[in-house]
TrEMBL record:
Keywords assigned: Hydrolase, Phosphoprotein
Positions of transmembrane segments: none
Superkingdom classification of source: Bacteria
Molecular function GO labels: protein-glutamate methylesterase activity
Group of enzyme by EC: hydrolase
Residues where 4-aspartylphosphate is found: 64
Protein name: Response regulator receiver domain protein
Biological processes annotated in GO: phosphorelay signal transduction system
EC id: 3.1.1.61
Record-annotated Response regulatory domain positions: 13-130
Lineage: Bacteria, Pseudomonadati, Pseudomonadota, Alphaproteobacteria, Acetobacterales
Gene name as annotated: cheB
Amino acid sequence: ARPTAAADTTRLRALVVDDSAMMRRLVRETLSGDPAFAVVGEAGDGRAALALMAELRPDLTMLDIEMPVLDGIGTLREWALSGHGAVVIVSSAARPGSELAALARRLGASAVVGKPSGAFSPDLRDRQGEAILRAARRATFLPAAAGAEG
C-alpha cells in the first residue's frame, strides 16, 4: 500500500485497489486522465486498502473483489461501518447483474464495472477505461465527461 504524491485539493481524491498491478495501472491512468480526479493512493489487498481509506479519506475508491489478505466483499463490510466516500467495484468476479454484484451494492458500492479477463487489446483497454470513468463520475455525482458516450 502506498499513498501517492499530494493531490490538488480541487480534484476528487481517488484510491485504486486491485491485486493486479496491470489493473491498478489501467484504473490509475484512466482516472488521472480526467481533470476531476487525482489518484492519491494504491493498494494490492483489502487490509492495506482499509488502512489507506482511513488515512487518506478518499472521495472515491475503485475496488477489486478477488484479492489476497482481505477480499473486496470483506473490505466493503468493514468500510460500511465507518467508511467515507463512494466505492466502485471493478471486478471480473462481480459482473453487473450477478449475485456478487447485488451483494456489493447492498454493502454500499455505488456501481459495479466488469473487468475483462485475459489479454488487453488497445480497443478493449479504451472501452474498459470509458466504463470505469463513467462509473467513477456517476458515483461521485459528476456529469458525464465532455465528449464521452452514453
